[in-house]
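[INFO] parsing input record for Flavodoxin
[DEBUG] input buffer:
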Amino acid sequence: MAANKNNILIAYFSWGGNTKGIAEEIHRQTGADLFEIVLEKPYSSDYNTVLKEAQIDQRNQARPKLSKHIENIQKYDTILIGYPNWWASIPMPIASFLEEYDLAGKKIIVFCSHGGGRFGQSLTAISKLEPNAIMGEALSVHYSGGQNLKNDVHKWLELNKIN
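[DEBUG] output buffer:
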């Protein structure tokens, strides 16, 4: 059964713009609702500083506060979750997002931008945070995906029966 765009949420966290670009391409192809996961206190815009901040957050299993929230998560059957691979796992804002909502019985389909580490341990981390969700086929995108992004997203959406 194909998913209906009205029941799909694209939720993403992006620091450098790669994941945002992927989320926007998915939105262009699906028309699904788009939600950016934003921190109350954003990470530094300096690359070296954000690496330190992210590593400290992961080491401490921090749950940074989010500045935006979804009012009616119940209306979505499928949640496409995007993030950059940070330190071989999810950025902690993704953990904050997942712990804020009960996604039991919903389908979670992951897309991840990376610089060579693909998913790392991120799929396991998400499964532990949402053990009662149904995991779809994930998509890993090297940096911004380049000229293949449109086609890669199309194939991934078809694989997950989202047309």
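[INFO] The longest helix spans residues 18-30.
[INFO] shutting down worker
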